[in-house]
């Protein structure tokens, strides 16, 4: 197994690919929302998803922005839904369209709507699937999802995906887990279970936005996050020979999305990422290329190592990590500030 965590994850891009993208001022991926509609009410949801909002993108508009992204060099489309992507009636059409363009795709889903038929369809189309699974305890999972019976349906959806053939050498399967007070104790065992089953463990810190701002009982201290990252780092190193260095925002994975990606929300607004919910334009008004090229926010983020402010500017990991831009923005109001949730941030508070 490779020692490169980024390549183990199969969700990021190599440094030389990122450098070429920056040179061309293009894209390697986009994150795409379909609708804010969701069948769950997760306590930590960044977008406070539930009901659809007015004037969401049509199927043709979604296809148009995917095509524009490909013309800018995008190789991978991340299907976020905004709410739950599998609740969107045109999801199969989108998957087919992305497939027809020869692009990779990653679907983030809560897993509750995965049927045997959908699992087989996604596997046949080569879609990497990441299921949102926050606990192996039904009461904890249901509480975090805000709906009873969710744990059972997630496990059923996961089984359908594995029965369909996930994961294999070509098509990956993962679990997305938000680190919070309620699941801290079981994270090492969940991580180990995922690794043993060749499932990508996508464990990330909370972003203080949406419903997470209303649910302070989810919060863990900076020192607790540091401890759990180091515990997971040790599991990988000692048991599997996978070597990585603990730093925000996602365990074993360096978030470098601001060099090569952006988010298109369900109303067509472009954001740098889900955490920086600062619209920089709308695809209904201008082409994606023009929006990205004219945005000083995108320019600053693509030059983040030079533009970043505070302790991050002199951190020993400053050329490998820039913290969570979402938490920097949500907590300080400045997307260029140092990440207050990083344990290397000297002025951070517990």
Q: Can you describe what's shown?
A:
With 350 residues, the chain is α/β, with parallel strands linked by helices. Helices cover 36% and strands 12% of the residues. It is built from 13 helices and eight strands. It has an eight-stranded mixed β-sheet, covered by helices on one side. Strand 7 and strand 8 form a beta hairpin. The longest helix has 19 residues. 49% of the residues are buried. The mean pLDDT is 94.
Task: List key phrases describing it.
350 residues; alpha/beta
Across the major sheet, the strand order is 6-5-4-3-2-1-7-8
Query: Fraction of residues in helices?
Result: 25-40%
> Could you describe the largest sheet, including whether it forms a barrel?
8 strands, mixed
Q: Beta-sheet strand percentage?
A: 5-15%
Question: Poorly predicted ranges (pLDDT <50, ≥5 residues)?
Answer: none
Structure classification: alpha/beta
Radius of gyration: 19 Å
Estimate the mean pLDDT confidence: 94
Distance between the termini: 36 Å
Q: Helical stretch count?
A: 13
Overall, the morphology is globular
Quick one: how many beta strands? 8
Order of helices and strands: HHEHEHEHEHHEHEHEEHHHH
């Amino acid at each position: 197994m490779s020692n490169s965590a980024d390549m183990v994850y199969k969700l990021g891009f190599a440094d030389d690919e990122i450098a070429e993208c920056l040179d061309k001022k293009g894209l390697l991926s986009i994150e795409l929302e379909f609708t804010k509609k969701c069948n769950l009410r997760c306590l930590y949801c960044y977008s406070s998803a539930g009901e659809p909002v007015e004037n969401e993108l049509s199927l043709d508009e979604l296809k148009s922005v995917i095509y524009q992204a490909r013309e800018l060099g995008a190789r991978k489309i991340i299907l976020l839904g905004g709410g739950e992507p599998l609740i969107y009636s045109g999801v199969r059409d989108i998957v087919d369209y992305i497939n027809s363009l020869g692009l990779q795709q990653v679907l983030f889903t809560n897993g509750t709507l995965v049927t045997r038929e959908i699992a087989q369809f996604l596997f046949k189309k080569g879609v990497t699937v990441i299921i949102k699974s926050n606990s192996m305890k039904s009461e904890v999972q249901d509480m975090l999802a805000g709906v009873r019976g969710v744990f059972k349906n997630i496990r059923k959806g996961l089984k359908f995906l594995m029965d369909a053939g996930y994961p294999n050498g070509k098509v990956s399967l993962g679990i997305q887990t938000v680190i919070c007070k309620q699941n801290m104790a079981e994270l090492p065992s969940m991580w180990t279970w995922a690794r043993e089953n060749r499932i990508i463990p996508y464990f990330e810190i909370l972003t203080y936005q949406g419903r997470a701002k209303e649910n302070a009982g989810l919060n863990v201290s900076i020192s607790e996050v540091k401890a759990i990252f180091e515990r997971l780092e040790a599991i990988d190193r000692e048991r599997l020979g996978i070597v990585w260095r603990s730093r925000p925002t996602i365990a074993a994975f360096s978030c470098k999305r601001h060099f090569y990606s952006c988010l298109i929300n369900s109303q067509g607004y472009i954001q740098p990422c889900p955490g920086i919910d600062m619209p920089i334009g709308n695809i209904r008004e201008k082409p994606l290329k023009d929006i990205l090229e004219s945005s000083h926010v995108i320019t600053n983020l693509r030059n983040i190592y030079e533009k970043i402010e505070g302790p991050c500017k002199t951190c020993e990991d400053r050329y490998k990590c820039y913290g969570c831009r979402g938490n920097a923005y949500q907590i300080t109001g400045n997307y260029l500030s140092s990440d207050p949730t990083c344990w290397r941030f000297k002025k951070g508070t517990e």
